[in-house]
Structures are given as structure tokens and as C-alpha cells.
Design brief:
The structure holds three protein chains of three kinds. Chain B is an all-alpha fold. Chain B is built from 15 helices and two strands. Chain B has a single domain, classed as ABC transporter involved in vitamin B12 uptake, BtuC (Orthogonal Bundle). In chain C, 42% of the residues lie in helices and 17% in strands. Chain C is elongated, with a radius of gyration of 22 Å. The N terminus of chain C is likely disordered. Classes of the chains: A mainly alpha, B mainly alpha, C alpha/beta. At the B-C interface, helix 3 of B face helix 1, helix 3, helix 4 and helix 6 of C.
């Protein structure tokens, strides 16, 4: 009894949501691919970026999309510093320690936000918050369309950085052969921190694209970090395009699952697909063999 | 302190802790003890699979929740007594472990892949518990308050203290037995190098399956205990990610793979939780900021956990003598 | 269990006292002449001020602290020679087991009573723990009906539970609909997945068909739900006369905004315990989305000046006057009244005083208090509607400050 036009609209919305998921997951995937660490603080960093966008809008009247040039370098620097001077020294070489550090970091950031900004949910209203764009039978809010296109552009830029620049080459070299990279004169600590910085910066982009149609509160990162993990594994750990397609897929599955199974049970679709992919293609959709 | 000394110290600690509530009349102390023993048992469950076997799970909530819901449902919906419910819960934990183990180990999942697939299983169970009629969906399940040994409820909280202590001691002894057995040696071999272990004739699949069954059953007993103590259960309490995090936090801080590590870690973390609350006073959230910072500092300066510290001291003492 | 080795107890008590003193010092100006003052009465304020319930927990704490402040400023507890109330703050961190641990500490710091704990799951744990020590526990919010009536004689709930709220919500909806010439026949329910939303929706789903409504669809959603498009698209195709949401603030706001984006405008939005529908924050930030939304929720008696006075005070502090604030505020005043009646800070005497209390000095629309099995019998919600950027009471008549606008005008 579900109207086909609703299915189309729902899928389109899922695609737009999925594009933002993909962007958040790309940051996580890059960090995983290069550093082999599961970064639990990723959601908290997204949360801080969302607050950044919010306060730039509220205090300086800066449009959320125009906040990007301000926020991007700040997020990058913060990410760099965080890895170089907190995560790397504390985490050492042991994976489980890195995990603890990022868990601790998430706890610290989230509760600092609670102390500093209180627990109020904050939203912004822009002139275009309620502008709608008709795409075929579906009405898509303008901020969602911008999020979809913006995520695509950001993904391409990120890909170009990783593939085409010296910086990207250095990061990839470190990711593949840590020791060899050091022997040829690459500062590995610098390269690792740079990878973390790029991961954090991509969360900042996601924050700018997200806030016009979403909200921010100290807890907001939780909802994204679990999904982002799922996408990273689904796409194949560390696989760039895997995370991208995984994000889109999860967005659509979540939306259609919600439509057919109900919004609560529908979430099960995400994890069902996730488990199935892992069992039958353990390296993820686009991952290299184990 | 070598591992054997650590184990003995842990057991002595438990024996000394047993009469404490009768010597010191403090509800805070009793509750603190219960929380430590509960976290230590859950941590020990994780430790057998994650610490000894190197199979990191992010989804121990799946076992904890399965145990909790099993006994609650049996008591409420089927009139089963609490004791049978408790044992059924342990069995349920093993069954869930069987399913997760078969699904993931059969397909050779390891490392982060295994971690995240366990997380996904816990999430699936959370969503199911949130939807199904029998689990009370989002409304949750409330056991009637009726103290009595036959209902495994104690009017005197020290009863819970002893039960938790017993579970903790049992988990410690099981872990000790595992560590000293061929299973323990094979687990370590699989953790260090699965291919090499395999070449030496160890069947990694069988070894990992045994570990996860034991681990799941043990974690489920903690879930069943939780229900008896708090009498209320909802999907978030049972299967929420915070349970999985609690399960791995203690052993990693205490020293993963060591028998005494989970208890030491649980004790330290609970103490840290209390201290940070006292330190931060009334400022909202400041206590958790302190907790997080100290956690990072612990990892920074005690990279091998408390066990690592103990080892380092022993080595220094050894070098000095 | 309560009598024991004093010297050992003392150590724990002193530690707890120090913590209390540190946390309370900033909040209460300590009286200069301590010797002339009767001993302060310690009141445990236990709320989830961190974790995912932080917002509501903090609002509760603010309300309770404001009540203590004003009681102390106006002479304290007269029956105890003007004794001041001293708050002992507790944070349940949004977890039942931490809530239970806080009760233990409050017991050892010698609180006379506890007010808390906002969430139903936490309240179930804290009332049970407090019962072991006979500590009177006033539940300020917690809508689950399981909290009261499970034989805990220390537990008192001033506000209504969701059973009563839903019952009254349905009765009032029928009355509103009839008065407007029965414009609404079909209904869509949108609710959150935890205890309060699910419980409320189950009752609605059962009762509404017997009152002449057709329930077209019941949609349950997760917390958080990131996107409400599906639900709104379904709404669009089903075209219900009435939409009934029962969810928390964030989801409510997203739902209302998505409805506006997609141009869905039913004849009425009638929420039951709507997270945002009767929130001044929502009305101030999204006046267009909030306009004409009706709610059946905890509310104050708008005719009582004290209620409006408190609103001014809360807003002067830069906070929103939400139901958490005034319910916790009045819960503390209920306790203060019980202290007056008991003439003692003894826990048993306070429990007795609460059980037989007939206090009518509050500003909630409940009438004099009367507790049966711990539940205040007169407790009830009011129906409100967002009209002209304010929240007006539209039902029942005796409390109404405005006429209902139903069906809502099609812009």
C-alpha cells in the first residue's frame, strides 16, 4: 500500500542523508586506513564542529556554508594537534590503548561541551531553511540538496588530495610501509597527524552541510559515529570509494527500511546488511582481500 | 609481581573483601563493592576472549543483555523461579555466543572486523528488544519487588554483595583455570600469530569458539545479576553500547590477558568515577571531564595497564637484587 | 542495618559532608551566625544532569534549587525554628545504577528526603534504594505508572503518570472535537520508542477507536531519529485529520519542521506529553512551526501568580520555563510543607506527613494533595495551545486563558 512516489522520494532523501554519512565516514576511514586506529572521538569532533558553525552563525551572522573557510583550517589544526600531542603519545603502539585514548577523549570533549554550552538543543534558522526543490515527484529541502552536492564535491576534493598531491602521497606511503617511508625521509609522525587533521577537517565540512537541516547538542555525535563505523567496515576498511558508496547505500537502506519496517525496526536493515556483507564478503564492498 | 602473584593477590583481596560490609556499616561501600564485582566479572568475560585470545569485542552487551532478558522474561512471562532463570540466562549467553562465534569465526573475521560485527549483533538485539512484544518493547520489564532467597532478592543489600563477590571469584577461578590449561596456551598462540598457531596444529576456529562460549556465558551471568539487583530492564540498559565499553575498559586498564587485570581495572575505574565526582563537585559534567582526562593519563603513563606497572616494578626489583 | 559502628560511619559521613559543602557553597550564601541557626535540613536533589538526559535533568535541578532558595529566603522551615534547607546534589549520569549509588551517598550524608529523578528508569532504581533506608522520595517527573503502587511506602509522586495523562488527553480531545463540530475522524500517532512514548501510544491505540476515531497509522521512531521525511511522506499520503506526536524535544522539532517543509497541514496537531509542543523554547525559536499546536501535558495553573512569578525568575536567569522546572520546584515545596506538618526532619515523620498531606499552597492544577499508594490523586495535565507566540491553556474551562482554535486555520 506504499505509494511508489513515496518510495522514490524516500530513496532520494536517503541518498541525501547518505551523502553526509559518507563524508563523516570518509574522515573515519582515512584515519583507519592510515593509522589503523578506531577513532571513537570522531563523533565528538563532529559535534564540536557543529557548535562552531552554530556560534559563527549566531554571534557573527555567518551563513553556515560560508563558515566553511573559517572552520576548515581550525578543525585541521585542532585535529593535527590532537593526534600529535594527545593521541599519539598516549596511545603508543598498542591498538587497544589508542582505543582507550579516543574513548577518553570523546568523554572529555562531550562533557566539556556540556559544561561550556549546556545541554540545550540548538538549531539555526536561515532564509533557505524551508526552501524546497522539486525533483521529479519528490520535494527536497534546499539544505538537503546542498548537502548532497556538497558532499559529492568534498569527496572528490578529498580524493584528489589523497591521490594527486605530495601530501597525499606521503600519507599513503606511511599507510602502506611505515618503516620504509621513514627511511626515505618522510616524517611519519607528521604524516600521521596530517591524516588525522584531514579526517577532522572532513567532519567540519559535514558539520557545515548538516546544521541547516539538523541540530546540535553535546550528545549529537553518538548518532553518527555508530553509523560511520558501519559504513567504514561495509565499504572495506580504509577504502576511499568503499566508504563513499557504503554511505550512500546505508542512507538509502535506512530510509527505505524505515518506510517498510517502521522507523524503529527499520534501523535493523542497516545492521542486517552490515552483518551479511561481512560474512559473505569480509573485506567489505570495495576492500582489498585480507 | 608476576602473574601468579597477581592472581593470588586478587583472590586474597576477594577473601578480605567478603566480610567488609559486616565490619563497616556503609551502604555506599556495599554498593561500590557490588559495582566493582559486577564490572570485574563482565571485564573477566571480555578478557578471556579479548585479552587472552586477542579477539576484541565491542559487543559484549549482546551477552549481558541476553542474560538479563532471559531471566526477566522467564520469571515474568513463564513463572519460572529466579534461580532457574539465572542458570537459563547463563545458557542463553552461551547460545548467543555460539551464533555470533559461528557467524564471525567461521568466516574468518578478525581484528576490527570482528569487533564491529559484534557491535552490530548487539545493536540488532537492542532493536529487537525495542520492538518485540515479549521483551516489553520500549516499556521494558519490571520484576516485582519481593525479597526472599528463593526469589534471589535480598532485603539486606549485603546479600547482593556476597552474590556479586561470588560471581567475581568464580570468574577469576575460571580465568585462572583457562590461563593454566592447554586452551589458554592455544588462545595466546592464536592471539600472537594465528597462521603460526595453525601451522603448529592448533585449530584457531575451535579455540576461539570455546573462548567465546565461555565469555558469553560469563557476561550473561552479570546481566542476570543486574536484573536481580535493580529489577528493571530496558533495551538501552541491556544492549546499549555503554555496556560493551564497560566490558573492555576494565581489563584494558588493568592489563589485558592477565587473570587479575579485570578486577584491578574495575576497582581503579570505579574508584576514579567516585573520586572524580567528589573532586568536580556540583559542576555539571565536570566529573566526566576529569574521568576522561585521568583515563587518558593512565593510558599515557601505564601503557601495559596495572599489570604492566606491576611487571615493570618486578623487573626493576629483580635487576636490583 | 542503620545502626552501626559510629566511629567508622563518621569517616564516610564526613567525606560526604565535605563533598556536599563544596557543592553547596556556591549556591547558598552561608548564614554568618551559624550558632543562632537551627540545624539545616538536608535535601537530596538527584537528577541526570549529564548523559543523554542532561537537558531535562539540569532543568529539574534548576527548578528545585530555585524552590530551596525562595524557601530559605522567606524564613526556612518555621516548624523547625526557621531551619534552612540544604541541597545535596546528585548526578545519576542518565544511568539507573549511578542513581542508586547516589542514593547511598545521600543516605550517608544524612538527607531527610530525596527529590528526583526525572526519568522513569532512574526513578525506579532510586525509589527502591531509598526505600531501604526509609528515605522519603518525591518523584518530580517520571511518568511510568510502575513507579508508584509497587508497595514502596517512601515513594510519592506529585505529578500524574502517563495512564492518567492519556486518559484525560483522550477525554479532552473528544470534548474539543465535539465542540468544534467533529472535524476530526482519522488519526496518525507518531511516538518515540522508549517507555513513555510506547506506553502512551499503546493506550491511545486501544482507546481512540472506541471514541469514534479511526487510527490510520502508528509510527514508532528511534531516539535520535535523524530524518523524519518518511514519516511525513506517509502522513501526506494518508492525510489524517489529526496528528498525535508523543516524543522528546529534538525529534518533535525535526518532525514539526519536516511537516512544514513538505507542506503537510492536518486539521490539528494534538500531542500527548509532546516534547516541544508546550515548550517556550520551541515557540520562541520556531513560532511558525509551533503555531496552533495543541498539547496535553504537565502544566501550571495560569491563574496562580506564583506560577507566573517563577516564570519571570527562570527567564531572568536565561533559562526556559519548562515543565521540568516547575514540577521539580513544586515537588520541593511539597516536601517543605511536609516538613512543616511533621515538625521534624525525621524520615518516618516526613513519610507520615506526606501520606496524610492535604496541601493546597502549590500552583499546579491538582487541588489539595491526597496520596493513595504514593500517587497524588488530583494530579492531572492541562491542554494547551500555541496561540499568538504564547502558550495558552485551552482546556478544561476553569483553567482556560484562551479559546481553542480548532481546526487550525489553513494558511
Amino acid at each position: 500500500m506504499v505509494d511508489p512516489s513515496i518510495v522514490a522520494a524516500s530513496a532520494l532523501h536517503g541518498l541525501a542523508t547518505g551523502a553526509v554519512y559518507a563524508l563523516v565516514a570518509l574522515g573515519l576511514s582515512l584515519v583507519y586506513g592510515v593509522l589503523h586506529i578506531v577513532n571513537f572521538a570522531h563523533g565528538s569532533l563532529l559535534m564540536l564542529a557543529l557548535y562552531g558553525v552554530y556560534f559563527l552563525h549566531e554571534r557573527l551572522g555567518l551563513d553556515p556554508y560560508l563558515a566553511l573557510p573559517v572552520l576548515l583550517p581550525v578543525a585541521g589544526l585542532a585535529g593535527y594537534a590532537l593526534h600529535r600531542w594527545v593521541i599519539a603519545p598516549a596511545g603508543g603502539a598498542r591498538d587497544e590503548n589508542v582505543l582507550l585514548v579516543t574513548l577518553g577523549l570523546a568523554l572529555v570533549l562531550e562533557n566539556l561541551a556540556l559544561v561550556a554550552f549546556r545541554s540545550d538543543t540548538r538549531t539555526i534558522e536561515t532564509a533557505y531553511s524551508f526552501s524546497m526543490v522539486a525533483l521529479g515527484p519528490a520535494l527536497l529541502p534546499l539544505p538537503k540538496l546542498v548537502a548532497l552536492l556538497g558532499s559529492l564535491v568534498a569527496t572528490l576534493v578529498l580524493w584528489a588530495i589523497v591521490q594527486k598531491t605530495d601530501l597525499g602521497r606521503a600519507i599513503r606511503a606511511v599507510a602502506r610501509e611505515r618503516e620504509a617511508a621513514r627511511l626515505v625521509g618522510i616524517d611519519t609522525r607528521h604524516a600521521f597527524a596530517l591524516a588525522f587533521a584531514i579526517g577532522t577537517a572532513s567532519s567540519a565540512v559535514a558539520a557545515c552541510l548538516l546544521l541547516p537541516s539538523y541540530y546540535v547538542s553535546p550528545q549529537v555525535g553518538h548518532g553518527f559515529v555508530l553509523i560511520a563505523f558501519t559504513i567504514v567496515v561495509l565499504g572495506g576498511m580504509g577504502s576511499f570509494w568503499g566508504a563513499f558508496w557504503g554511505g550512500l547505500l546505508i542512507g538509502v537502506v535506512e530510509s527505505l527500511g524505515g518506510l517498510f519496517l517502521g522507523e524503529s525496526l527499520g534501523q535493523i536493515g542497516i545492521f542486517a546488511i552490515f552483518i551479511a556483507v561481512l560474512l559473505f564478503r569480509p573485506t567489505g564492498l570495495l576492500g582489498r582481500p585480507l | 609481581m608476576n602473574p601468579a602473584q597477581g592472581e593470588r593477590a586478587a583472590l586474597v583481596f576477594l577473601v578480605l573483601a567478603a566480610p567488609l560490609p559486616w565490619l563497616v556499616d556503609s551502604g555506599t561501600l556495599v554498593h561500590f563493592g557490588i559495582m566493582v564485582f559486577q564490572a570485574a566479572t563482565l571485564g573477566q568475560a571480555w578478557n578471556i576472549l579479548g585479552g587472552m585470545g586477542g579477539q576484541f569485542s565491542f559487543g559484549h552487551a549482546a551477552f549481558f543483555g541476553a542474560g538479563a532478558y532471559t531471566t526477566a522474561i522467564l520469571q515474568l512471562r513463564f513463572g519460572v523461579d529466579a534461580w532457574s532463570g539465572f542458570f537459563a540466562a547463563i545458557l542463553a549467553g552461551a547460545v548467543v555466543a555460539l551464533v555470533i562465534g559461528l557467524a564471525s569465526f567461521r568466516f574468518g573475521l578478525r581484528g576490527s572486523y570482528f569487533a564491529l560485527v559484534t557491535l552490530a549483533f548487539a545493536e540488532v538485539l537492542r532493536i529487537l528488544a525495542n520492538t518485540l512484544e515479549i521483551t516489553g518493547a520500549g516499556v521494558g520489564l519490571l520484576l516485582p519487588l519481593a525479597p526472599g532467597l528463593e526469589r534471589l532478592q535480598f532485603a539486606d543489600r549485603r546479600g547482593y554483595y556476597l552474590l556479586a563477590l561470588f560471581l567475581c571469584a568464580a570468574s577469576l577461578l575460571v580465568a585462572r583455570a583457562v590461563a593454566g590449561s592447554r586452551l589458554g596456551a592455544r588462545l595466546v598462540a592464536v592471539r600472537e600469530n594465528e597462521e603460526a598457531a595453525s601451522a603448529l596444529g592448533v585449530d584457531p576456529f575451535a579455540v576461539k569458539m570455546r573462548a567465546i562460549l565461555l565469555s558469553g556465558a560469563m557476561a550473561a551471568s552479570v546481566g542476570a545479576f543486574y536484573v536481580q539487583y535493580f529489577l528493571y530492564l530496558d533495551p538501552h540498559i541491556a544492549f546499549g553500547p555503554q555496556v560493551s565499553v564497560e566490558a573492555l575498559l576494565g581489563p584494558i586498564v588493568g592489563g589485558p590477558g592477565t587473570v587479575a587485570g579485570p578486577l584491578a581495572g574495575a576497582f581503579l575505574l570505579q574508584l576514579l568515577g567516585e573520586a572524580s565526582r567528589a573532586l568536580a563537585g556540583g559542576a555539571t559534567g565536570a566529573n566526566l571531564v576529569v574521568y576522561g582526562i585521568v583515563l587518558i593519563l593512565i593510558v599515557r603513563f601505564l601503557p601495559g595497564g596495572l599489570a604492566g606497572l606491576a611487571r615493570a616494578r618486578a623487573e626493576r626489583a629483580g635487576a636490583g637484587s | 542495618m542503620t545502626t552501626g559502628d559510629r566511629s567508622v560511619r563518621e569517616g564516610w559521613r564526613r567525606r560526604a559532608l565535605l563533598a556536599t559543602a563544596a557543592s553547596g557553597a556556591g549556591l547558598l550564601a552561608a548564614p554568618a551566625v551559624l550558632r543562632a541557626q537551627p540545624a539545616a535540613v538536608k535535601i537530596g536533589l538527584l537528577h541526570p544532569v549529564t548523559g543523554f538526559l542532561a537537558f531535562s535533568g539540569q532543568q529539574c535541578r534548576e527548578g528545585a534549587l530555585l524552590a530551596i532558595e525562595s524557601i530559605n529566603a522567606t524564613g526556612g522551615i518555621r516548624a523547625l525554628g526557621g531551619a534552612k534547607l540544604e541541597p545535596v546534589l546528585g548526578d545519576a549520569q542518565s544511568k539507573p545504577e549511578i542513581g542508586a549509588a547516589e542514593v547511598e551517598k545521600m543516605n550517608e550524608s544524612g538527607v531527610a528526603a530525596i527529590v528526583g529523578a526525572y526519568s522513569s528508569a532512574i526513578s525506579l532504581a532510586t525509589t527502591q534504594s531509598a526505600a531501604r533506608y526509609g528515605i522519603p522520595h518525591i518523584v518530580d517527573v517520571g511518568v511510568s505508572d510502575q513507579i508508584v503502587g509497587r508497595g514502596l511506602t517512601n515513594t510519592f509522586r506529585f505529578c500524574p503518570g502517563y495512564g492518567v495523562i492519556t486518559e484525560i488527553a483522550i477525554a479532552n480531545l473528544v470534548a474539543l472535537n465535539e465542540a468544534a463540530g467533529k472535524p476530526a475522524r482519522s488519526v496518525m500517532i507518531v511516538h518515540e520508542e522508549s517507555l513513555f512514548g510506547t506506553g502512551t501510544a499503546q493506550l491511545l491505540q486501544k482507546e481512540l477507536p472506541t471514541r469514534g476515531f479511526e487510527v490510520l497509522e502508528v509510527v514508532k521512531h528511534a531516539n535520535p531519529t535523524r530524518d523524519f521525511t518518511n514519516i511525513v511522506l506517509k502522513m501526506k499520503s494518508l492525510d489524517p485529520d489529526l496528528v498525535i506526536p508523543a516524543n522528546y524535544y529534538n525529534e518533535y522539532v525535526l518532525l514539526a519542521r519536516t511537516m512544514r517543509q513538505q507542506g503537510v497541514r492536518p486539521k490539528g496537531i494534538y500531542s500527548v506529553l509532546g516534547g516541544a509542543a508546550s515548550s517556550f523554547k520551541f515557540v520562541a525559536e520556531f513560532p511558525d512551526d509551533a503555531a496552533y499546536i495543541m498539547d496535553c501535558n504537565h502544566w501550571y495553573d495560569p491563574r496562580k501568580p506564583a506560577a507566573l512569578e517563577l516564570r519571570r525568575k527562570v527567564e531572568a536567569k536565561g533559562l526556559y520555563y519548562t515543565y521540568e522546572v516547575f514540577l521539580a520546584h513544586e515537588a520541593v515545596r511539597l516536601l517543605a510543607d511536609a516538613l512543616e506538618r511533621a515538625g521534624s526532619a525525621n524520615r518516618e515523620r516526613i513519610v507520615e506527613a506526606l501520606a496524610t498531606s492535604d496541601w493546597d499552597g502549590h500552583f499546579l492544577p491538582y487541588g489539595p494533595t491526597r496520596f493513595v499508594n504514593g500517587q497524588n490523586q488530583g494530579a492531572r495535565p492541562l491542554n494547551t495551545q500555541v496561540l499568538g507566540r504564547n502558550i495558552e491553556v485551552i482546556f478544561p474551562r476553569e483553567f482556560a486563558t484562551a479559546q481553542p482554535v480548532f481546526p487550525m486555520p489553513r494558511a
